Every structure is written in C-alpha cells, then in structure tokens.
C-alpha cells in the first residue's frame, strides 16, 4: 500500500481535497494532525531575516512608485500659465489642474494672483470699453478669458480677442469680487476636453459649492474659454521647446564646477592629515576597529568566500589536457588554499577583537561604493540608446539583487531547517511532511513540491 | 634676505583673522555649524558652547536625517545618539561618555571628538556627497549599497511561540510576488524615462547631456517646486564653496586643535579607553567560520589528491621542467592577483565592475559619444554576475538535496519523486 504525500502543486498552501478511499493518506490529514513546528529561539532569527528581505523589497517598491508618479504626471497634459513668466522662466508652464487629490485645490497664493490678474484685466477692459464703447456686458467672463496666454508673441492681442468669445459663453458668472462666490454648474462647461480623466473625477466630487471647488471651477472657466485653440502642452508634441531657466542653469554649472574643484582639493587632504593625526593620536591608544568596521570586514569576507568557492568550482570542473594544465590546476588550488587560510586568520582576529585596521586604509564602512577614493564626485554618465536597452539593464540589476538575497536566505534557511530534519528521527507522516516542506524551501526555492512514496507493510 | 623681511611684515591682524575664517569655513560646510565664537568658548569649556556642539555632532553623525527631522529628537536623545555613534566608530576617549546627558557640558571634549572625526576621513566632502542634490535620473549600476545595509537587528530573546513551517513558505511566496511586482514597475519606469528623454532631446544647455531629466522637466512644470530646488542647489553651492575654503585654511585649525588638546586636564595615569563594544557576537561569525573551514577542507582534499596523482604521474621531469614550473607559478600568481586583491583589500567592491550611481543619458545608437559608461558594457558585466550567482545558488540547492536525501535514508525508506524537469 502506498501513502502518497503531496502533489505537484506549486502553491504554498496546497489544499488537497479529501478522498473517501480508505487506503490513502492525504496531506490534509497529516496537516490536521499537527503542525510542523519549528523550535522557538532560532526561528525568530529566520523570521527576522525574511521580514527584512520583505521590507527591503517594499522600500524599493515605494521609491519606484514615487518616481512613477512623477514621470506619469509629466507625460500627461500640462496647461499654459495665465500670466507672465515666473521665476524668470521663459514659456512658463503650469498645471493647476492635472493633479487629482490634494492638488485639486489651488493654493491660496494662486487664487490671490488670479484675483489680482482679473482685477487688472477688469481695469483694462473698462478702459477699452471707454474707448471703443463695445457692447460687451461688463461681466466677469470677459475678464477671466483674457487671461489665457500661451506664447509671449500673442499676449498683446489675446485679451481683446478672447474676450469676445468668452462673453458669449459663460454668461452666468458673477464678477470676481470674491472668487469664491462664483457659481457655475459643471454642465456649463462642455468643452473641458482638455481635462484629463483624473481631473474630471475631481470635478465630479463636489456637488456643493464649497469654496475650494468654486475656485477650481473658476479656473476651469478660464481654461474652457481658451479651448477654442487648445494650448494643452504635452511633452510629446512640444517637449523640444522647453528651456531651462537661466538661474537654474547657472546654479547647476556652478555646482558641477565646485564639485570638480573639490575633488581635486581632496587630494591635498591626506598631506595635512599626516601632521594632525600624529599629534591628535599621540595621547590615544592605537586604532582598533570599531563595530561598524568589523561588520564591514565580515561582509567583505563573506563575499570573498563566495568568490573563492566559485573559483574552486571552476578549477575542479576543468579537465586538464596535458601535464602542464594539470600542474597549473594544482598550483591554483594551492594558491586558493593559501588565500582561504589568510581569510580564516583575519576572521579569527576579528572574533577575538584583536584586529587592527588592515594596512593603512581609511575606514570605508561609511563611504559609498566606488566613491572611496573620490567622495565628492558628480555622478558619471551612463549612455543608453534605446528603451529596450535600459529595460534590460534595469531588469538585470534587479535580478542580481534578487539572487544575492536568495543566496543569503538559502544559507539562513539551511542553517535553520537541516538540523531540524536531522533531529526528528521517526519516519512517521509528520516528519515526512516536514521533509517535503523543507525540500521545497531549500531545493526548489519554495516553488515546487515533490511527492514522497512510502511503502507500507500490509496492516494485516 | 629680502624674502625673510617680507615674511616678517605679514600683518598680525591677518594672522589673527586666519583662525576664525578657517573655523567659519568649516562651520559653513558642515550642517548646523555654530559660529567661530562658539568654538572659542568651547576650547575653554564654557557651558554655553556645549548645546550647539552637541547639535552639530548629532547632525554630522546622522546625515541620513532630513534637515527638519533632527528637531524631533529631544536634546537628551541627541546626546545619547552622539555617544553611541562615537562609540560604534571606535572613539577612544572615555571622558566624552561620562558627560551628562542633558547636553549642558562638555564643549572641549566635543571639540576633540569633532577633530577626531575630521582627522579620520574627508568628513565635509562625504556629507556633501551623501545628501547631494540630484539633478539627473540616476541609476546605480551595482548592488553594493543594498548589500552593505546591515541585516535585521538581533531578535529579542523571548520568543512568541513556535512557528509553523507553512508560515515560512507563505513568507517566501510573498517575497517572490513582491519581486515580480518590482520588476514590472521597474520596466514601466524605464519606458517612461525613455519617452521623457526622447521628447526633450536638444533642450539641455549642456551638450554632453542633450536632453532633460525628470527633475529638470518637473521644475519646468511646477515653478514652485523649481524654486525650492533652486534654493537647495544654491545652499549646496555655498557649502561646496565653504569646503574649498576649509581645505585651504585647515592647517591653522589643526594647530589650534593642538592647543585645545593641551588645555585638557591630563588623563588619569594611562589614557583610558572604553571597553570595546563586543564584536557582533562570535555567534554571528560562526557560520562564516564554518563556511571558510569547509572550503579549506575541500581544497585540502583536492590538493592532496592532485598532488599525489602528480607525484605518481609521468609528467614534469627534466631540466626544462624547473623553468616551466617557475613560469607556471608566475602565471597562476597573475591569474589570481585580482582575486587575491579582492579578498584582502578591506571593503573594496568586487573586481573591476562599474560602480556607483550614474546619470542616465539617452543617445542615438552608433554615435561615438563622449565620456561615460555604455549600457551594453554594463549589461555584459551584470549578465556575468548573474550567471555566477546562479551557479552558486544551484550549488547550494544541490548540497541541500544531497543532505536531505541522506537524512531521509536509503531504502526501504520512502521514495522521492522529484518535481518535473527544470
């Protein structure tokens, strides 16, 4: 009679349906009978490692999400700024509406500026009316619409032009004495095709005329009036026209110049330190390694162990063709043996706390990698030529990180689970279930399970 | 003669100004730097100088905190954090650890601690690098940062109860799922970056860059954010400038620090130093010791076997043999030189791989391009790394399989049917 444990199922929580047939034990029976328990003290460490792995993954995801939000927003439509340049930005572009959520509410500063602007234009229209005796009602719409500006060239002609258009449309609006008091039902703005989906959701939210919402609608009126010639700015169409502001360019070039100068100066640093170090340290005992340095060295030795093991594997697998290659292989293995010996020696030094910093290097524990010699470098360039290339690169980088993590977890789990299996001796079903679970975790990365067939002596 | 006379005519006022200027430069390049007057008072251990110096050391020793975050730490917490950080880095003077936690005393000791930190490494430059303003879209090409982060803190001794192995399985599954999500998000981000870079080509004033980065485009979209970025950039420029000044004038500072050291009361008998923080438990190092020992054992076996085979073999006799042997020894030495260096040298990242964050720049294919790393090269390096790591993982898994098979025992034990092919 065979007891079949398990299945090919790849889910971690396989639910094997109970079978009525008497001769088979299924996993459910076994799992019901008892948990595969892990002893307490070590398991906390394993759990901590797993949680740490999960957390670091989550942290990367958070950072990515942040960048994704910014990038997505940039690829949507922006809007032209009603007004002149800000911050000295030529062709300033602003998105009052493209952020659903908290940014739906224009800042008080924006509202204030809008109010000032509309008052100024109000005055301009009054003057113009006084001159031309145009029959436009001195209602607000004509003023608001005048604020659409998309390029400096047409700015001068924009107010009189657009005022005609807007006057015919949003005729129910009131003068903007308080911007908050504007009441325009949303259905009066059919041409809001410039708004992205997110904005429409934002608009649809407030049924009541709360203050922020009406300020929002106020701006929508402004924009819809301009929709005659939609000036939505998309990066795709007009990205080439962008230009960085002067102040920023100057600051950025100054920044890179200072960094270059600083990295050159950094070399003279070591000379002055020679003087001061001896004086400062004369009263103090010889340098010992700090805890962070010890940790860093241990990690480094772990990496070294990995490299050595890999190299040994390569040598052992090589098939020497002649005596020269054979001898060379032998020499290599001897050399590797020597290096391993040195690493062990260093490790023992670290264990006993007798270690001194290795030959004249500065503590590197806190220096970013690659920047060891040159801490103030500005980042070098990485040139890519197609999106495909960039994606491959990024995917490989993540894959390497994931493999590092998998190897680390594999070692942790090995140290934890193998002794467990060897301790529990009886070949009963619970132990076999444990074996199966351990096998899947350690040998298949938790993705596949094996089947255990057990021959039972006939009961009778 | 004339030269000597010229030197003597140096204005004493200049000499007097040199020290405060040096200290001012240092103070400006460090975050939360106090005034030169505070430094002077600290030399004489005046109590009013202490709080400012505690704050300075706190900011210097915890650079990862944002500018405003340090305010959320109480003065006592800051003092304790500074003491712990200094101890972790191996600061030897006991007197600092004995200062009261309320941060009211200790100006002189704090000055010495600051000088010790400055003497150990390029501190201002390092701080400026860690928190620099990023203007480009950066991507690290190595995993060193992630690998260098410390593991989980040592778990508390009391345990909550036993853990079911299925919980471990569940956690592993969750981890796999998160990685898959991460990969997908990363692909999307790369696609978006590619678009933004190609849509803005030709816009950048710097020809070698050619197009705008996300940060730069964002500042055009959002002038308010742009203004803040500009302010941060200008603040950083001021600190960079101050760092240059500091390097020019620091000799004066070190001479002054000698006087500060002299002003300290002599330490009792021998320079006492703090008992070292115990190394992260020999327990934590045990697995590594065992690994290395196992490796050593395997190597020893292999070497013995091959040497025996060699001695018993036919090759390698005769006069030309010794010349060949020396040549081979040299060749092997060179072969393994890189490996040896990687294993010996403290902390250096692995052999000849590109490192650090790089700014992404999109170019036309085939264009020779200026300085900078090329993506295909990085991809090559990463692929070989990936292959190596996969080999290691398979080896480990193979070891586990063998071990488990051994434990489960020979027939008439159960028969294991492995899952279908790889």
Automatic annotation (TrEMBL), chain A:
<dbReference type="InterPro" id="IPR031518">
    <property type="entry name" value="DUF4693"/>
</dbReference>
<feature type="compositionally biased region" description="Polar residues">
    <location>
        <begin position="144"/>
        <end position="154"/>
    </location>
</feature>
<dbReference type="GO" id="GO:0005929">
    <property type="term" value="C:cilium"/>
</dbReference>
<feature type="region of interest" description="Disordered">
    <location>
        <begin position="132"/>
        <end position="183"/>
    </location>
</feature>
<dbReference type="GO" id="GO:0045880">
    <property type="term" value="P:positive regulation of smoothened signaling pathway"/>
</dbReference>
<feature type="region of interest" description="Disordered">
    <location>
        <begin position="252"/>
        <end position="287"/>
    </location>
</feature>
<feature type="compositionally biased region" description="Polar residues">
    <location>
        <begin position="265"/>
        <end position="281"/>
    </location>
</feature>
<protein>
    <submittedName>
        <fullName>Tubulin epsilon and delta complex 2</fullName>
    </submittedName>
</protein>
<dbReference type="Pfam" id="PF15764">
    <property type="entry name" value="DUF4693"/>
</dbReference>
<dbReference type="GO" id="GO:0005814">
    <property type="term" value="C:centriole"/>
</dbReference>
From TrEMBL, chain B:
<dbReference type="GO" id="GO:0005929">
    <property type="term" value="C:cilium"/>
</dbReference>
<protein>
    <submittedName>
        <fullName>Tubulin epsilon and delta complex 1</fullName>
    </submittedName>
</protein>
<dbReference type="GO" id="GO:0045880">
    <property type="term" value="P:positive regulation of smoothened signaling pathway"/>
</dbReference>
<feature type="domain" description="Tubulin epsilon and delta complex protein 1">
    <location>
        <begin position="90"/>
        <end position="261"/>
    </location>
</feature>
<dbReference type="GO" id="GO:0005814">
    <property type="term" value="C:centriole"/>
</dbReference>
<dbReference type="InterPro" id="IPR043535">
    <property type="entry name" value="TEDC1"/>
</dbReference>
<dbReference type="Pfam" id="PF14970">
    <property type="entry name" value="TEDC1"/>
</dbReference>
<dbReference type="InterPro" id="IPR027996">
    <property type="entry name" value="TEDC1_dom"/>
</dbReference>
């Amino acid at each position: 009679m065979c007891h079949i444990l398990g299945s090919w199922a790849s889910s971690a929580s396989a639910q094997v349906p109970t079978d009525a047939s008497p001769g088979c034990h299924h996993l459910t029976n076994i799992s019901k009978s008892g948990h595969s328990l892990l002893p307490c003290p070590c398991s906390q460490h394993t759990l901590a490692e797993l949680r740490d792995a999960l957390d670091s993954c989550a942290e990367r995801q958070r950072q990515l999400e942040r960048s994704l939000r910014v990038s997505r927003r940039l690829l949507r439509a922006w809007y032209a700024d009603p007004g002149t340049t800000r911050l000295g930005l030529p062709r300033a572009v602003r998105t009052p509406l493209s952020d659903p959520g908290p940014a739906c509410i224009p800042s008080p500063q924006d509202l204030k500026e809008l109010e000032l602007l509309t008052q100024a234009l109000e005055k301009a229209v009054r003057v113009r009316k006084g001159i031309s005796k145009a029959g436009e009602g001195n209602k607000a719409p004509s003023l608001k619409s005048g604020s659409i500006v998309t390029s400096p060239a047409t700015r001068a002609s924009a107010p009189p032009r657009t005022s005609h258009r807007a006057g015919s449309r949003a005729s129910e609006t009131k003068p903007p004495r308080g911007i908050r008091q504007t009441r325009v039902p949303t259905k009066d703005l059919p041409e809001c095709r410039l708004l992205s989906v997110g904005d429409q959701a934002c608009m649809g939210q407030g049924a009541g005329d709360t203050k922020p919402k009406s300020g929002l609608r106020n701006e929508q009126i402004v924009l819809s009036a301009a929709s005659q010639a939609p000036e939505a700015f998309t990066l795709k169409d007009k990205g080439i026209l962008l230009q960085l502001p002067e102040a920023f360019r100057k600051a950025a070039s100054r920044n890179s110049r200072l960094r270059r100068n600083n990295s050159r100066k950094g070399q003279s640093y070591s000379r002055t330190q020679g003087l001061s170090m001896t004086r400062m340290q004369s009263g103090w005992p010889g340098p010992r390694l700090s805890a962070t340095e010890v940790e860093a060295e241990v990690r480094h030795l772990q990496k070294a162990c990995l490299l050595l093991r890999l190299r040994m594997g390569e040598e052992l697998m090589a098939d020497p063709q002649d005596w020269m290659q054979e001898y060379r292989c032998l020499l290599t293995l001897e050399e590797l043996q020597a290096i391993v010996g040195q690493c062990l020696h260093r490790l023992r030094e670290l264990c006993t706390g007798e270690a001194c910093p290795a030959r004249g290097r500065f503590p590197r524990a806190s220096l970013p990698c690659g920047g060891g010699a040159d801490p103030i470098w500005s980042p070098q360039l990485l040139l890519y030529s197609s999106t495909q290339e960039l994606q491959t690169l990024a995917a490989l980088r993540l894959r390497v990180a994931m493999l590092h993590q998998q190897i680390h977890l594999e070692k942790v789990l090995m140290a934890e689970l193998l002794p467990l299996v060897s301790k529990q001796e009886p070949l009963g079903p619970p132990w076999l279930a444990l074996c199966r679970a351990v096998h899947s975790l350690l040998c298949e990365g938790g993705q596949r399970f094996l089947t255990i067939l057990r021959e039972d002596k006939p009961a009778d | 003669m004339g030269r000597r006379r010229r030197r003597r005519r140096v204005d004493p006022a200049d000499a007097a100004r040199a020290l405060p200027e040096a200290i001012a430069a240092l103070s400006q390049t460090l975050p939360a730097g106090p005034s030169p007057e505070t430094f002077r008072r600290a030399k004489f251990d005046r109590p009013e100088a202490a709080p400012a110096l505690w704050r300075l050391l706190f900011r210097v020793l915890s650079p990862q905190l944002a500018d405003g975050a340090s305010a959320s730490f109480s003065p006592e917490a800051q003092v304790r954090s500074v003491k712990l950080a200094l101890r972790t880095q191996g600061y030897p003077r006991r007197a600092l650890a004995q200062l009261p936690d309320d941060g009211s005393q200790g100006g002189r000791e704090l000055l010495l601690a600051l000088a010790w930190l400055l003497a150990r490494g390029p501190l201002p430059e390092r701080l400026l690098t860690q928190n620099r303003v990023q203007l480009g879209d950066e991507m690290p090409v190595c995993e060193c940062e992630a690998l260098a982060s410390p593991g989980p803190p040592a778990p508390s001794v009391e345990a909550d109860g036993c853990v079911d192995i299925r919980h471990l399985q569940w956690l592993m599954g969750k981890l796999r799922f998160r990685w898959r999500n991460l990969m997908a998000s990363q692909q999307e981000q790369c696609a978006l970056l590619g678009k933004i870079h190609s849509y803005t080509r030709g816009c950048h004033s710097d020809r070698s860059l050619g197009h705008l980065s996300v940060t730069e485009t964002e500042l055009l979209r959002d002038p308010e954010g742009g203004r803040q970025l500009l302010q941060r950039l200008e603040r950083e420029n001021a600190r960079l400038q101050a760092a240059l000044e500091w390097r020019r004038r620091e000799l004066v500072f070190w001479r002054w620090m000698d006087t500060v050291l002299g002003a300290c009361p002599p330490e009792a008998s021998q320079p006492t130093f703090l008992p070292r923080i115990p190394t992260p438990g020999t327990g934590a190092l045990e697995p590594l010791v065992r690994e290395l020992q196992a490796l050593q054992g395997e190597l020893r076996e292999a070497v013995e076997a091959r040497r025996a085979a060699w001695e018993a073999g036919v090759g390698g006799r005769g006069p030309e043999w010794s010349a060949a042997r020396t040549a081979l020894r040299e060749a092997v030495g060179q072969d393994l030189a890189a490996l040896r260096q990687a294993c010996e040298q403290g902390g250096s990242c692995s052999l000849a791989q590109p490192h650090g964050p790089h700014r992404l720049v999109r170019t036309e294919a085939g264009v020779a391009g200026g300085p900078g790393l090329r993506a295909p090269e990085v991809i090559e390096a990463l692929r070989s790394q990936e292959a190596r790591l996969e080999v290691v993982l398979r080896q480990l898994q193979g070891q586990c399989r063998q071990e488990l098979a051994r434990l489960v025992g020979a027939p008439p034990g159960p028969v294991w049917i492995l899952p279908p092919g790889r």
